Amino acid sequence: MIEPEIMDRESDGHFMGEALRLAQRARAAGEVPVGAIVVREGAIIARAWNQVELLKDATAHAEMLALTQAEAAAGDWRLTGCTLFVTKEPCPMCAGAVVHVRLARVVYGAPDPKAGAAGSALNLLQFPGLNHRCEITGGVRAEECRALLQGFFEAQRRRGKKGVDS
């Protein structure tokens, strides 16, 4: 018998579960299902999901919205010591923002081989020429994250909608 994985409230899996709940909210709103949280000292200080369609703003990715909330919560644009948990590997825009706010770590679920900027297509988070590099942990609850994204895009295709990027 295989023992179930015990997930404490400080584990990467636990926090990714919170991001997955937010991704479900995005899906329910017709958005690409990506959720993100920012954690500082074991506490969630920001929660967001994709809102590109709702806000009619191409920059309204879950990561960008979560970073803005976290900056407000921290009272500073520098988010040193914080970790971003996101259900899909960040794109170049989001990875650039992560570097600028100086996050300590990024944890993502599903990799994005076409546009992921945390090591899949390119790695901006650890690019030697930039002023900051952060630790990367990929593949946390990847199957759940991937299934949510695939299900969304399959439904979009069935409805005949053009593809939307996250």
Task: Describe this entry's structure for a reader.
- The chain is an alpha/beta fold and 166 residues long.
- Helices cover 37% and strands 17% of the residues.
- Strands 2-1-3-4-5 form a five-stranded mixed beta sheet.
- It starts with 11 loop residues before the first helix and ends in an 8-residue tail after the last helix.
Classify the beta-strand content into a percent band.
15-25%
- Count the strands? 5
| Distance N to C terminus | 39 Å
- Binned, the helix content reads 25-40%
What structural class results from the helix and strand content?
Answer: alpha/beta
Shape: globular
Number of helices: 5
Question: Radius of gyration from the CA trace?
Answer: 15 Å
Q: Would you list the SSEs in sequence order as H and E?
A: HEEHHEHEEH
Low-confidence regions: 1-7
The overall pLDDT, averaged over residues, is 93
Largest sheet strand order: 2-1-3-4-5
Describe the structure in brief.
This protein is 37% helix and 17% strand. It is built from five helices and five strands; from the N terminus they run αββααβαββα.
